[in-house]
Amino acid sequence: MRKIALFVSLACLAACAHGPDNHTRRATTPVAQYATGAGPLAVNTHVPDFATRNYEPFTRQDVVAIALREWRLFGEPVSDDDPLLRPEPTTPVVKPERTPGLWQRVGEYWWIGQDPQETEIAWDGKHDADGHITDFVHDGRFAWSAAFISYVMRVAGANDRFAYSPNHATYINAAATGQEKGVKARNPARYAPKPGDLICVGRGASKSVRFRDLPTPQGFPAHCGIVVAGPHDDAPFGHEISIIGGNIDDAVALTHVPVGQDGRLFDHRGRSLDPRYPWCVVLQVRYDADSEPQADQ
């Protein structure tokens, strides 16, 4: 496994140093399952206090670190091939999401990432809400890539800045309409994604969705990954960034994405540099800081 360029912050904001008296109240967060991410706010009791009470600021460093931690847990898989060329599994034992230790972890993505009143909180990597084992072939209904993103944002302390949902389109459209206070939808032809940002693409019949089409009048199948390494020169694309996403080949996997010398996903003519994925949007996340304050050192 070749090394990836891990995100290392260059900034440390001393103003974010804080003591125990600043974290007495748990934050409320948006209720999921809304087409644009808008909805009432409530405390999610499934989320740990260190996140809902923001023991530390909401930072790029933490989002990247959490995504990398989950990737390591799944064995550091790298998925750079064209998804259309991947063979379908013929046995459940080849699906990491269904293996001992990992199917429970997927269940934690659902339990923490979604709102307590939603059915999905009882799902895991191989069981439905009633505890029945799901069909390992026809399990698209239980796709957990958006649950993974929601989990990372929850645990990192995004709180009311993100539209948590089992569907990527929820927070894509929320950002595109300006209803998501912590995320801004950016044109991938004009904005270079940074570590901690998300890049997203439509899937299946929605692969043709472009930035100009956002927000869409209805939800659409999509996939998003968290940028964990900025532009660097390496195989397979020469100049690339690294992203981590969930439910890629039934695992948390790292994918390399080609970018131009300016760090953008598109060339100067507005054409995607990635032959596999026509990225439709970059979700620029508004963080408190790039990294945690170093008050404990």
Automatic annotation (TrEMBL):
Protein keywords: Signal
Biological source species: Komagataeibacter xylinus NBRC 13693
Signal sequence bounds: 1-17
Source taxonomy: Bacteria, Pseudomonadati, Pseudomonadota, Alphaproteobacteria, Acetobacterales
Protein's recorded name: DUF2272 domain-containing protein
Domain named DUF2272: residues: 97-285
